[in-house]
Amino acid sequence: MQNKFSKLISTGSYLPDKIYTNHDIEKLVDTSHEWIVERTGIEQRHIAGENESSVDMAFQASSIALKNATLNASDIDMIVLATTTPERKFPSTAVLLQNMLQNNNSCAFDVNAACTGFIFALDIADKYIKGGFAKNVLVVGTEKITSLLDWKDRNTCVLFGDGAGAAILTSSNEPGIIYNTIGSDGSYKDLLTVNTDPEFIEMKGNDVFKIAVNTMGKLAAKTLEENNMSVEQIDWLIPHQANSRIIKAVAKKINLPEEKIIMTVKNHGNTSAASIPLAIDYANNKNLLKKDNIIMLEAFGAGFTWGSTLLRF
Ligand code: UT7
Question: Which domains does the chain carry?
Answer without folding.
Answer: 5-172 (3.40.47.10), 177-312 (3.40.47.10)
